[in-house]
Design brief:
single chain, 146 residues, 4-stranded antiparallel sheet, alpha+beta, 5 helices
């Protein structure tokens, strides 16, 4: 990890932080400094933003056509989206159908304190998928959820 501080806070940090031991080698720290200073980090972020935007847009276009999807949530943040599904099936049934087609989707209920019956909401992540894999996965979901 790293910390970027304005000069006044840096002075205070140096006073208080002297007792902390840094577990990152100076070589690694210098490499990160140069990586950021020379603009490589910013270029990397811009490249990743563009890549994830393309994946996001491709996934959203296909998800809108899937049977059973009532509403798409969280489509403006992160590298996943939430699908509020109709109640003709439970979360488990929607997930099992996807898994039968070798597509993994996850239940939102796993992250809820109160897991009592509620509308089925599924999590679809796309961070690790390539642009080429997304249309094929959408076709398999189409078959699974018809």
């Amino acid at each position: 990890s790293y910390l970027v501080l304005p000069a006044p806070l840096m002075e205070r940090y140096e006073e208080v932080g002297k007792s902390f031991s840094c577990t990152v080698s100076r070589t690694d720290q210098k490499m990160l400094e140069l990586f950021m200073e020379r603009g490589y980090f910013e270029r990397h972020l811009n490249k990743m933003r563009a890549l994830y935007k393309n994946k996001h847009d491709l996934l959203l276009a296909g998800v809108r056509k899937l049977p059973g999807v009532k509403k798409i949530l969280g489509d403006r943040s992160g590298v996943h989206i939430l699908l509020k599904m109709d109640q003709r099936r439970t979360e488990e049934e929607w997930i099992a159908g996807a898994l039968a087609q070798e597509v993994r989707v996850y239940p939102l209920s796993e992250y809820c304190i109160d897991r009592k019956s509620r509308e089925p909401v599924l999590i679809l992540g796309y961070a690790t998928m390539s642009l080429e894999e997304i249309p094929a996965a959408l076709q398999r979901l189409q078959a699974a959820w018809k």
